[in-house]
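Researcher: Go.
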Amino acid sequence: MKRGLIAATAVAGMLVGVAACGSGGDTTGADGFKGQKLTVWVMSGSNPAQWTEQVSEQFKKKTGATVEFKVQQWNGIQQKLSTALSEETPPDVVEIGNTQTAAYAKAGALVELGDLKKEIGADWNEAFNKASVVDGKQYALPWFAGNRVVMYNKKIWAEAGLRGTPKTRSELFKAFDTIKKKTDAEPLYLPGQNWYFFDGLTIGTGADLVKKQGGKWVSNLGDPKVAKAMDIYKQYQAFSTAPKNKDEATPQQGEVFAKGRTGAVIAMGYEAATALKANPKMKKDIGFFTIPGETADKPEGVFLGGSNFAVAGMGKNQELAKEFLKVALSKQNDRQMVKESGWTPKSPDLAGAGQENPAVAAAAPAAEKSGGTTPLIPQWAAVENIPNPIKSYMTAVLGGKSPADAAKDIESEINARLAKQ
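Model: Structure:
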């Protein structure tokens, strides 16, 4: 029986006790699943073709069951996922953004996976696994994570007479200015609402987006450090003619880059595949480098974004779902994810695969020295719901409003979302 559509802000109230109500899953073991079908929700762009093919084949060979990947869109996913996880027949395995996992775990919507983590992920980097753990328990398993780099068009940079890659932010801005003066290309395509890049800048300034006040989490957007991060973003965006009220997925910035007249984008490594799908002839022109910071010894702050896999608490195929995770997150398939999509290796054994992907190599210095995440608290998922108030803040500042005034305009909305349990 379906229940009404709910917002992620109300997920706890709707899903409380879900895990206890579940069937507990199959108990037939890895050899007793022949002919069954497992449903896995993945987000658009997450599951690369070769990885998907080999996981599907290995899963069928191991269990006799088949897996159906259902691709979802990021826009509105929290509401959709909240509804799905509260139904009696939810998807068996779900991809959840690493900043959103705590909310679903707190609501009792996910299966505890501590034993499975010990079995297959004993050597995973703790920074990757942190977002899967809530109150000391493992409620998901890290699938992938990575951070943004500068993806640039070598041909345009050569047209502008640029040699090498910038090592500081001022050198990068100088390069953008040179492209603007010496070519007909746009130096940088940066929509006004690329808020994960902005969040990386807040990490770089040492800012926190929320703070504890009177025992409650409240907005910290008025912090001068956040204003400094937004000022840096504004300097970047000044080199772009992209809309100030759109994000990097509207349209897909990789497709914009594929047109061949954009000097650079601030991108995840997998976005190169988006560009090449639209324009395969660009392959030799695409390059990557670490986003440079104020000084050469420390890259720009970056958000370590990624996704976890979780098993639905109401799912009827929990044991089969765990068999899927053993396959999907094996060393072989994790290595394929790194090679194919440019994600950061999550264990020492995968370092070699990272060296085969130039985007991974470019991302590594910032991940190590300047990486972080949004607040890992259950209430944070509600802040990311659409319409995202931080995106509104960014557009307002880019439109001329002071950071302090823009923060005041949306703090009440953020506080209301943080207050919902």
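Model: The radius of gyration is 22 Å.
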